[in-house]
Amino acid sequence: MNGRRIQGFMLTGGTRATLRGTCNRTGRPQAGSILIAPHLEAGLYDAIVAADAVVCGGGGQTGHMQSLCRGRGIPVLRVDEADLADLVGTVTLDLENGAILLEPDPAAGPAPAPGTGAPTAEHLGAACAVIADFQDIRTVNSCGPNAKRVDSFFIREEFLCLAAGLSPFDALDGGSEEIARYGRAIAERLEAFVEELLPDQRLVLRLLDLRSDHAASVTEQSAVAVEPNPELGLHGARWLLGSAPYRDALHTVLDTLRTRLGDQAARIHLSVPFLNDADEYAQLRAHLELPGTVPLSAFIETPAAVHATPQICAAGASELFVGVKDLVQFYLAADRGNHLVADSYQTRHPAVLDGVRRVVEAGRAAGIPVRVFSLGTDLAHYLSELPTPDGYMMCTAELAEVLQSEAAVSGVKRFDRKN
Fold first, then answer.
1. Which CATH number fits the domain that encloses residue 32?
2. Which of 10, 106, 235, 346 has a Cα at 20 to 30 A from 93?
């Protein structure tokens, strides 16, 4: 086994060329370790965020946990699952070439500085950072003058739950006291996030969207349905519509925020996940019993929602977020978490770009702001092929790299946008 090299595939990159560390196979958090796991799942959240790198045996580039790693700058390397058994003790990751060295590499040099791409902060519009915790806000807001270009931070409610050790299904099934306790806990987390914002920034909360397979890994008491295809199952807006306990918890969140933050509570906006059409949007707003003063934006991440964008705008959506990662898998019938169909999962596919273009144009016609998610590697392509949205959404590490670009405005590549 001496000198063996295991070739893999980088799902998310980092800022170093090589990384040496101790393998962690326990599933528990070990600071600075290399986490080894067959698959990344919500139950590994604490272990993932504590790790310097992750090696897994399956999954795609845009799974939820992979996106968490991308936002934190944690490299994720996928190898053949049969090779995981050999990853013990200390190993060296060759991140430039997507490989693992099973003995230390004494020739490994110092880590290079992060590179800069052609797009710069000038191209981002009103940028939105996809975050998982306080550290991500601090990372973005420490990027110098360009941090002011980031006017919003987007976070999933399930990430708040994982970071706080909350089990949402258990709480929502636990009666009125547990529901209220859950709502207060979420509000307290949000309040702490608001304290990290710059004066003109806001926080966008994507309402709870916990798929059954992810819920099963963090639920101890509640029964979770076993679904043959959780990605297309009972989650997002369709789950929210059927949950009165969640409605009550959300009211506790909003009431607590108003009590504790006063007018500053208006800096927290809500967003509907996994939406299909305007009827669903209107039904959900009514079901949640939201005051008219509370803005509710919509995630456009299914082909049906793309088709219904003008009607969703007319139904009162305050803003549109284009979830490109989900759009790709639904347009191309390619599971974003399945590496066996990675060649079919194309974030630049013409059909996907046509869908994004339709959303941007519909939002522009209705006067509704539109923000488009982009991987760092796709940003230049989107800038040249899409009409200009109001802003781009990016994971923290990739956004920070763009914000810190030192390219002079006069020398910035002028992208020929399709307007």
1. 3.50.30.10
2. 346
Farthest CA pair distance, the chain? 66
CA–CA separation, 123 and 359 (whole Å) = 19
CATH of the domain at 388: 3.20.20.60
DSSP 47-61: HHHH-SEEEESS--T
Gap between the Cα atoms of 4 and 26, Å rounded? 24
Q: Answer whether 0.90 is exceeded by the pTM.
A: no
Q: Around Cβ 301, how many Cβ atoms within 10 Å? A: 25
In this structure, the chain runs to a length of: 419
The rounded distance, in Å, linking the Cα atoms of 218 and 170 is 9
Query: What is the pLDDT tens value at each position of the chain, 419 positions in all?
Result: 345 789 999 999 887 888 988 999 988 899 889 999 999 988 899 999 999 999 999 888 888 888 889 888 899 999 998 889 889 888 889 888 889 988 644 444 443 344 434 688 889 999 999 998 888 999 999 999 999 999 999 999 998 988 888 899 999 999 999 999 999 999 999 999 999 999 999 999 999 998 888 888 888 888 888 999 998 999 999 999 999 999 999 999 999 999 999 999 999 999 999 999 999 999 999 999 998 889 999 999 999 999 999 999 999 999 999 999 999 999 999 998 888 898 899 999 999 999 999 999 999 999 999 999 999 989 999 999 999 999 999 999 999 989 987 543 434 455 665 55
Which are the contacts of 70, defined by CB distance < 8 A and separation ≥ 6? 12, 76, 375, 395, 397, 398
**At how many degrees (to 10) do helices 176-194 and 244-261 cross?**
40
Joined together, the tokens standing for residue 67 give 């996106």
Does 106 map to a domain? Answer: no
Q: Is 165 exposed, middle or buried (CB count within 10 Å of its CB: 0-12, 13-18, 19+)?
A: exposed
d(CA 308, CA 276) in angstroms, rounded, equals: 8
- Looking at residue 120, the DSSP 8-state letter turns out to be -
Output phi, psi for 125, to 5 deg.
65, -145
Nearest to 186 by CA among 154, 170, 211, 163: 163
Q: How many domains does the chain have?
A: 2
138 is a domain residue: yes
Q: Which residues pair with 144 in a beta bridge?
A: none
The dihedral sign for the CA sequence 48, 54, 58, 63? positive
DSSP conformation letters of 235-282: -THHHHTT-HHHHHHHHHHHHHHHHHHGGGGGGEEEEE-S---HHHHH
